[in-house]
Every structure is written in C-alpha cells, then in structure tokens.
Automatic annotation (TrEMBL):
This is Glycosyl hydrolase family 115. Keywords: Hydrolase, Signal. Residues 775-929 form the Gylcosyl hydrolase 115 C-terminal domain. It comes from the Bacteria. GO terms for biological process: carbohydrate metabolic process. InterPro entries: GH115, GH115_C, GH115_sf, Hex-like_dom2.
C-alpha cells in the first residue's frame, strides 16, 4: 500500500545561511516527491565518491517512489526540485554558498560532519543542499536523508524492502550534524569460511570465485549506511588477499573507506595469502628481518595514495605468537625491531614524520602481556585494547595512557573462532553486555578507534548496528538496550510489531547469556573434545525442562508474530528474528532432549524414547530452516548460512538411541534434586510461613498406558489441577506445581497414580518477622545483587541472571580496604542451620587497568570480612569456565549459620566489578547448572 511520508527533523544547530531575498523558504518542508515528480540528484566534487553517494540516494528514491530521479553534475538538471550534494571543496557547493550567504567556515576542518539547508535560486529552483566537511561528512548527510525517507541500513543485506509512498517530504529546517563520538569506527570480516566467502564465490560473484570488488562494493555501501568508516578485510586462507585484486583498494578509496588490517597483519599485509615460507623464509624478525621489511615496504609503496590506518607491531605470520621469542625480553626486543622498521618505512614512503601517520597497535593476546611487561609504545600510536574474545575488555587505559596523543580504542568480538569454544553460527552476544563494556570504554576515554569482529556479517545484523550506533553517537548509551532494539525493530518492520520483536529478541539474548547454543556440548576446541552430558541436566532434569519450555514459548511467540507480518517483511523477519530464535531453540532441544532421554531411561520412565524423537525433530528443524534461509529471495543467500561451522561435535547429529521398556511397573515421583528411591522415603516439601512460594513434583509411569492421577493438597497449597491422566500425549509423566500462599500448617498431601498412593510430607516453618531481601528455598539462599544499593555501586539494567546487576563505580580508587567502605547490606532468612558455602557471583569482567584489581569483600553477620578476587590469569581453566557461562564464581568459604535472620554485606574494594548475585548453599541442595 502506498503511503505519504512527511518527516520533520529538528535542527541540531543553526547555520549562518540565508535564502536569496533575505529569508528562509516559507514552506515547512521540502518535497522530494510530490506525487508526480521526484527530485533530481545533483552532485559535485573530485573523485568517484560524490557520484556513488548520488546514485545510492537516487536508487533509494526510486525504490520509494517508483520513479528514477535524474542524476547529474550540473545545476541545470534541477527542474524545479533537487538534492545537491558535495563537500566543502566542491565547486558547486562553493558557488551556492557564496551566492546564498552560507558560511562554510563553520565546518572547515571538521571530521565527518555535514550541513543541510534548503535554498531557492533566482531561477525558482528549490534545492536541498547537503555539504560535507569532508567526503564522509557528505556521505553521512546522504545517509541521514535516506534514513529519514524510511530506508533501512539493511534494505539489501537483510531484505528490508523500502515501501512505496504517494508523497515524500522532509523538513526544510537547517541542520548541522555533530562530530562522530569515536574517530575510527569499523568492522572486521573474519572467519568467513562458512558464510561470506562461499556465498560470494558461489552465489553473488561466481565469476570472481571469491570475496572480490563486487562483494566489497556491497560491504562498503552497508558501511556507509551504518556510518562505519574503517574496514579490516577478510583474511583467512580461503579468501583471495584483499590487495591481490587491484580493484579492491581503489574501490575502497572511491567509497572513502579507511583501510586497516587485523591485529596480526602489519602495514596492510595479508599474511595468510601473501607470505610464503618456502619462498620468503621464516616470519622471524631476528633471523629474516631484511625479507620482512622488504615485504612491508612493497605494500606501503603500493597503497600510499589511499586512506589507511596502519597496523603496526608484530605477531606470528598468522594469528599466533611472535616467532623466535621464547621469553618476554626477547618479545620486547623483537617488537622493538619490528616497530622501528615499520615506522621508518612509513616515514620514508609517505614523506612525513611517523607521528603524523595514523597507526594502531592492537594489544591482542600475548602482545598485551609484552606491553604490560614494560614495552614502550610511541605516544602517537593508538593502543587498541582487545576484549578476551567473549565480550569482556581485557584492559582499559590508566590515567597516564588517557593522555596519549594517539589515544586508545577497543577491538571487540561479536563472533569468534577459538578456545575454549567457537561461536560462529548464531549471533548471541547480549546487547546489555555490549552497552556495559563499550560504555566503560567510552567513560575511560578509549574513543579513538572501535573495531568490531562481525564474522560473516549475517546473522549479526542488529548487534553490528547497535555497536556502530554507539560508536557514532555515544548519547546512545543513555538509551536502554531494549529501547534501542525496539527502535531498530520499528525501522526494519513497523511500530506496531517493534515492541513484541524487541521482547522476543531480548529473551533470546537472555537465554543465550547463561549458555550460548554453541557451548551446550560442554566440550572444547583446539584440541576438539567430545560433547559431555549437558550441565542443565543435573540430578533431576528440572533446569533442562525449564529451559526447553522457555525456548518453546519463545519460538511460539516468534512464529505467531511472524504470521501477522506482511509479505514484504517475511524474508527480513526470517533472517533477523525467526531463524536465530528457532535455531537456538532447536539446538537446545536436540541436546537437552537426548540427555533427558538418557536420564529418564535410567528412571525407567515410559516416555524416555519420546525425547529421542524430539531431538531428531529438532535436528530436522535446523536443517530445514537452514535450507530455507539459503533459498530466500530466489536463492539470493545460497551458501550464506551454515549451521555447522567447522563441523564441530556440538553440531554433528549424534547416533539416535532407543531405550528398552522398563521391567518395572507402576508409578513413581521425582522431587527437585533427585529421584525417590522407595515409596516411603520422600523428601519433605518445606514452605515458609508468610512467604508465598512454589515447588514442583514430577509424577511418571513406567508403563506406556493411560494412568489416572489425583492430587489432594493441604490447606494453604493450591495446584494447577487435581485430576489428570498420564498418556502418550503427556509422555506418561506430568510436572505438578504446588503453590504456597504463605499461610497454613504442616501436614501430608496425597498423590494417587493408578493403584498407588504417595503421602508427601509438608513442613511449614516460621518465617521472618519483617521483609527481607531473600529467603532460603531448597536449602539455598539466592540474593539478587541489585536488590539493594549504595553510593559505591551503580545499577545496570537488562544484564545478568536476575535482569539487573550492580557495578562498582568506575571512578573508585583501586585496592581499597574494607574499613573505609560503606557496604551493600542484604537481609536474609534461613530455614536451615549449619555450615553453608558462601559464593559471590559476578560477570567475568577484567580489572580496569594494572592500577586496579577486581576484588570485593564479603561478610556474614559480624563475622570476618573475606576477600573475593575475580581476576583470572590468561587463558586459565577458570577463565574458560567463566566466559562459557558469563559468570565468575567467587568462593568465600564456609559460614556457620543458625536458623533465622542474617545480614550479608558486600564491600567494593576495586572499580568495575559487575555483581550479579550472592548464594548461600547448604548441604543437600539440588545440583544445579554449574559452569
């Protein structure tokens, strides 16, 4: 359906520009399309960039209006309405500015800013003039206009088709854009082996047979639309080296893209495809320096006319440690030799001092260790802090490093291949984590360069745009991730569905935060190990069942919403929402169902084999959906989606077992934390007077026959039903929920299953006399960190297992003593007595800098203050466990507790600790998900 789009944009700032005749146009808007004629697009300036921007804008206008605008370089084409684009050096922009008294000096020397103004010429031409302080400023002026017209950044890359309108107007108010928040903002195309490269080679550009200029042109345009300006190109050995195709860098220059290279590739080289050890010898700066410097020199000479951000430093020939350096002293020596050579090459070749040439050193893996050991990096070089590959930034600048002329930045992963496990398939990094970590970087003045590893681009569309939006405009940190997601969904779909889509995707990210789908095998890579029984199974399978139910509900919501969307959004919805949601659910279903089948077969449950069939159906669902993805839009994305990257064991369909029927008959009950050994030895269900709560008992049959069940609760307890039948549809089992209203007496409930009657004891114990932050349940107390507050902590919403976390303030001094700290204080109530394990659970962040630590103090009642240190060393087993589960477990030892009221206190000893919850666990508590 055609619509009229009338958009009014408030001015960011007023320009000293006047209309011919001394006044602004009286019309409150500018007509890009009046229903009959579409505005022309006129461009002016040196090189190919203005023409490319003009043709992108004209293409967008044609998609929206159905009419192809005239694209020209002369103002005569403006009949009578047109958009004129150029930068401050454009002859036409200068001419119009002079004649209409537009002060271009307000943008002179600015970085990537633009102005926009409506003018009317003496020839009665109406002009929407977009003039950039530089080429990219001009581009972003065009991009903003395109966004206002209703064109998504993902109109091509995710099939968000622009919708036709009957008329199209934009505000005539003058606009001056702000400078981008982060100077260099970009993406790294990485691990392209299973998506981007096969798609480019076999589908999009088979004549090239690889990622070449045609593909890069699409990527460059996407970067324009996302306001990214820097690219680290694909560099795996499956890809033709970027500079082997001479059109690639020229095209990057035409698109005004700043080219860089990955953390392991100095001076614009692509070592994977360009360094040949048989021909060139070892990549060893100690023994083969001349060959390496000649290798670097050749490339710098080739690209010196382009806009580059040079990676400097030294690692191995690939993503490996430096060759020939066995000690930190040798690493420092080798790094110094390499750096001196690189800066000499740059200075001589570019004919300017090295400190005037943009350079970056990425302190990735062992390079950070070398830097921390005392290596001095020239002050003009940008230090790029890495995350730990799982979204937690390894270090941020000290007060001295903040003052560096070259500044600092961040290299951050949204996709990763490596230890302890890859996550290359589904993009599941939580946007709340991106906001917390990149917001931390912003607050610590790391603002020179942000590079995001986006893997194959798809399916990380939202995460990529969210991260780059924050880089372009740090005011976005004041908007919650959920609201940012809602606004993004409204742009891709519409306002009516945006809230529901945001809720679906936030639940998707929440579920993956506890364990990414790729990590469900509890195995590792490098070396690849075999999957193990899933940690959600525990002793009773309760958590696995709850997780399966959550994914089932989420998938049902996604499917139901998708069915209501119009045809022109079906492909986009499948790519952006339904495929990742349903595939994550199906991998969980396949793995958890098989483990449940094994657990239930040991119980002798009649329904065990139904879980095997669920697992088979889930794998079939993944295969079907992946084939459907690759067939979308008449095969446009063929070979883009691979549901088994690297063919890792977690993705490999297993052997499908079949379990023999139990040789026992009758029914049994399963309680939280384990199975009943005999019908007379039941755990007691314990409820606390005055504190409503819920508990679950499973009833199941060992025989595949219909079996009636009757439940008789006691006063104060209600159930979802009092009568049901165990049958094939229920898998001959049922989860019975018992809901305690807070009032009642101890007693016995009865559950009758067939001919058997089970008497279940219920204990009601006295509760706290006043409200508390947490009460013991199933022999464990879980205290949400954000249930209280203090001046040393700031709350961060939409993150962590409880939906909200506390972070010790970033401006706190490090290594504080508890005596000077005002603690967080929590009140709890325990129904058990004896020794309990005290655990403080945080997110696995890293110390802000070497000047700070990552410690808190914890105290129960008036006992001693125990220090908990969350800092991990390198790629230790503790760190691996932490990042796979997004938790850091701080063990504070055992505490002796009496039944009743207690106080737990947390002391912020260092900045940047992200506190999730505190747990007190008594012996006999159910075994639950543990990293």
């Amino acid at each position: 359906m055609k619509r009229s789009r009338r958009i009014y944009v408030s001015a960011v700032g007023l320009m000293a520009a006047m209309m011919a005749g001394g006044a602004w146009a009286q019309s409150p808007d500018f007509a890009l399309y009046d229903g009959g004629h579409v505005a022309s697009v006129v461009y002016s300036g040196k090189g190919a960039t203005p023409g490319l921007a003009a043709r992108m804008l004209a293409g967008d206008l044609q998609k929206i209006t159905g009419q192809a605008p005239v694209v020209a370089t002369r103002l005569a084409a403006c009949r009578p309405d047109c958009v004129v684009i150029g930068d401050l050096e454009s002859p036409l922009v200068k001419q119009l500015a002079q004649f209409h008294h537009i002060d271009l000096a307000t943008l002179s020397g600015a970085w990537e800013r633009y102005g926009r103004v409506v003018i009317t010429t003496s020839a009665h031409q109406n002009i929407l003039l977009i003039y950039g302080a530089d080429r990219r400023g001009m581009i972003y002026g065009v991009v903003d206009l395109s966004r206002e017209m209703g064109v998504s950044a993902w109109e091509w890359w995710a099939d968000v088709a622009p919708r036709r309108v009957e008329r199209l107007h934009v505000s005539a108010a003058p606009v001056t854009s702000k400078a981008p928040s982060v100077t260099y903002r970009g993406i790294f195309l990485n691990d392209e082996d299973w998506g981007l490269k096969p798609w480019a080679a076999k589908t999009y550009d088979p004549q090239t047979g690889n990622i070449g200029p045609k593909t890069y042109a699409r990527i460059y345009e996407l970067m324009w639309r996302l306001k990214a300006n820097t690219l680290w190109p694909a560099m795996h050995d499956v890809s033709t080296p970027f500079y082997d195709m001479k059109a690639n860098p020229k095209l990057a220059n035409d698109y005004a893209i700043v080219m860089g290279t990955s953390h392991s590739e100095a001076l614009m080289r692509n070592n994977f495809g360009e360094w040949n050890e048989k021909r060139d010898g070892a990549f060893n700066i100690f023994t083969n320096r001349n060959r390496m410097t000649a290798y670097w020199q050749k490339r710098v000479s080739e690209v010196k006319g382009f806009d580059n951000l040079y990676t400097v430093g030294l690692r191995g020939v690939h993503d490996t440690p430096m060759e020939g350096a066995d000690t930190q002293d040798q690493a420092r020596q080798g790094l110094q030799i390499a750096l001196d050579s690189e800066r000499d090459i740059l200075s001589r070749t570019l004919s300017k001092p090295a400190d005037k040439i943009p350079q970056t050193m990425t302190l990735y893996k062992e390079v950070l260790d070398t830097y921390q050991s005392g290596f001095k990096v020239p002050e003009d070089i940008t230090l790029l802090w890495p995350d730990d590959n799982y979204g937690y930034i390894r270090q941020l600048p000290t007060e001295a490093e903040i003052q560096r002329p070259g500044g600092t930045g961040v290299y951050y992963h949204l996709s990763y291949w490596g230890q302890p496990h890859d996550y290359l398939w589904l993009a599941t990094t939580h946007p709340g984590l991106i906001a917390e970590e990149m917001g931390k970087a912003w607050s610590r003045q790391s603002r020179r360069e942000w590079i995001f590893n986006v893997g194959d681009i798809k399916p990380a569309e939202f995460l990529t745009q969210y991260a780059l939006d924050l880089a372009f405009d740090a005011d976005g940190f004041s908007t919650s991730p959920r609201e940012a997601l809602r606004r993004w969904a409204a742009t891709q779909f519409d306002d009516g569905s945006a809230t529901d889509i945001a809720a679906i995707l936030m639940d998707y990210y929440d579920l993956a935060f506890s364990r990414r789908p790729e990590f469900l095998g509890w195995n590792g890579v490098e070396p690849v190990t075999r999957p193990q029984t899933d940690g959600f199974i525990g002793e009773d399978g309760y958590e696995a069942q709850a997780r399966l139910a959550a994914y089932a509900r989420l998938t049902a919501r996604a499917e139901a919403l998708g069915a209501t969307l119009p045809v022109d959004r079906q492909a986009a919805y499948f790519e952006l929402v339904l495929y990742p949601v349903r595939s994550a659910g199906n991998l969980n279903k396949r793995i958890l169902s098989l483990d449940l089948a094994a657990l239930y077969a040991r119980d002798g449950r009649a329904g065990a084999n139904s879980y095997v069939r669920d697992a088979q159906a889930a794998q079939a669902g993944i295969d079907t959906d992946t084939a459907a993805y690759n067939a979308l839009e008449n095969g446009k994305w063929r070979h883009m989606m691979d549901a088994r990257p690297r063919d890792l064991p977690v993705f490999t369909p297993p052997a499908w077992p079949h379990y023999a029927a139990s040789d026992r008959t009758g029914c049994d009950l399963a309680f939280s934390g384990g199975r009943v050994i005999n019908a007379h030895d039941f755990p007691r269900l314990t409820f606390v007077r005055g504190v409503p709560g819920d508990q679950v008992i499973e009833v199941y049959s060992r025989e595949a026959k219909d079996t009636p069940v009757t439940i008789t609760p006691i006063a104060g307890i209600s159930t979802d039903t009092t009568r049901l039948t165990l049958d094939e549809a229920s898998r001959w089992q049922s989860r019975l929920g018992f809901h305690w209203n807070g009032q009642g007496q101890s007693g016995r409930m009865t559950i009758t299953c067939g001919a058997q009657t089970f008497n279940v004891p219920v204990d009601v114990v006295d509760g706290p006399s006043a409200p508390v932050d947490a009460v013991e349940t199933e022999r464990q107390v879980t205290i949400p960190a954000a249930s209280t507050a203090s001046g040393d902590w700031e709350a961060i919403d939409e993150l962590g297992s409880q939906g909200r976390v506390l972070r010790s303030r970033l401006d706190l001094p490090g290594h504080r003593q508890p005596q000077v700290v005002t603690p967080l204080s929590y009140s709890i109530f325990t129904t058990s007595a004896g020794e309990a394990d005290l655990t403080v659970i945080a997110l696995p962040t890293h110390p802000l800098s070497p000047e700070t630590g990552l410690k808190v103090g914890v105290q129960v009642d008036d006992g001693p203050i125990q220090t908990v240190d969350f800092k991990t060393v390198g790629r230790s087993d503790t760190w691996k466990r932490n990042v796979l589960s997004n938790t850091a477990l701080g063990q504070a030892g055992k505490v002796s507790l009496s039944r009743g009221d207690h106080a737990v206190k947390i002391y912020a000893l260092d900045p940047g600790v992200v506190l999730d919850r505190i747990e007190l666990t008594f012996p006999g508590a159910p075994q639950r998900y543990a990293p």
